[in-house]
Design goal:
8-stranded mixed beta sheet
Amino acid sequence: MTPDFDYPVHEPHLPPLVAGRETKRHDVMICGGGPVGLALALVLAQHGFASVVIDADTTVCQGSRAICLSRRTMEILDRLGVADAFVQKGLGWTTGRSFYRTAEVLAFDMPHGPDDRFAPMTNIAQYDIEQLLVDAIAHYPELIELRWGTELMGVSTEVSGVSVDLNAAGQSYRTQAQWLVACDGARSKVRQELGLRMRGTAYEGRYVIVDVKVDLGWPTERLAWFDPPSNPGRTMLMHRQPGDIWRIDYQLHDGESAEEMTKPEKVIPVVEAHFAMLDVDRPWRLIWSSSYRASALSLDDYIHGNVVFAGDAAHLVPIFGVRGLNSGFEDVFNLGWKLSRILNGSSPPSLLHSYSRERRDVWAGNIAHAMKSTEFMAPPSRGFELMRDAVLSLAERHRELRSLINPRQSSVIPYDGSPLNVASPDETDFSPALRPGTVIPDCPVTVQGVPSFLTRHLGRDFTLIVFPTPKLAFDLGSPISDVTVLTVMADAHDVSTRPVGDALIDPEGRCRRAFDADPAAVYLVRPDGYICARWRSVDRNRIETALRHAGALS
């Protein structure tokens, strides 16, 4: 249906052309101006590299689409300098409830402590996500060019890069780029042009998604109903969004056409019946509706010559557990620093193979979790449905069964098999929690008396985090190129531990405990916040060996 909503419209843009060919060759062209493509442009700009983003639309997306951002995604957005705007606009939440018919069968509360800057989940519609990223891109006019109304017509790979055929305002032209990154979604035109296919499973579970505007005055939490009396046989979800918009997802019955069931005359009775069951008597308005199907698909490799795939163009995960867009943000935060190092000559192009290996392994891990949720939310067979309904009918009286209803929300999956990890001789002296391949925790610290957080002080490139003691002999001798050094100390006045690099104060020892840093520890952290290596004692040679292994030194 046509959205009942106003979106800013941008005019198509044509660059300077000579005989149908653009005069400029780009370092990076990003196909797709959704959240993933826009975020990648910001990552590259922070590393000082220019990109051009093309998108066939002339507005941000229509409809809420992806609406839940994980804590990890918010940390990534913070590193991109835009998290404050997302916090101001979004709705953080920690809890959820599930009902079987009218009985509550699950109430969950996601971990959230005083040291956490961001809520476990933040609700914000995708059109707002895209607009906030577009606003941030406006601060990089010399590095990021947005070409609205520009359709990709063809792709051809060359020895030194990629040629791309585009059409804008009815005029076709060709341009070249050293790298093309496909962020153009589940129906990726780049993927089609290269003749690539994703493999995996498309499940029969089909859902209608609806945006309605209504002031309910309810808290922000995840709400789910299985077989509600208002709509027997359906599974229904509700999420509050900013601006009194509520997102409602509901399962289609067998034989129902997705195209037919997204029409207003079909949507309105379903929503009205659900609101009547909930005793909602306030006026509401239908804003937008669409549909989706649960899929677990991926390319075998995300690197094809000088063409790279990210987000839904590379892989698809079922929507349950909100892993899709969050995984896309993690893709570009992984990819951005590696592509930047290749562009400036600091690392060889082979470094990108670690991107494909790491992110495809994460996709497999996401699928292992998401398919359990999918089989519960949209049973693939009558047998699955019978088992699910048995669990639901017993869960009200048998609490031990409630864990089977857990929606398994998105969580950070370690890069355990990463080729960039270095297992030091000191590994057995550490807790396995922060092993190489895991993302570092964001601990509170103070800097010159001002409260802050550890991740806000990570370098754009690699970072050494040092937890010293008087017995730890640590002297780099001279700075290592592109490596930021942070020393975490208990007391700014402790003269027995001379800080190396910037001093961060951890007066209550929370950071030291989180890093298992007693009696001492040194962590080597990648630009995307993942641990490469850790030591109890270290010298320059060990550090340089680990950096070389991670592709940071030639």
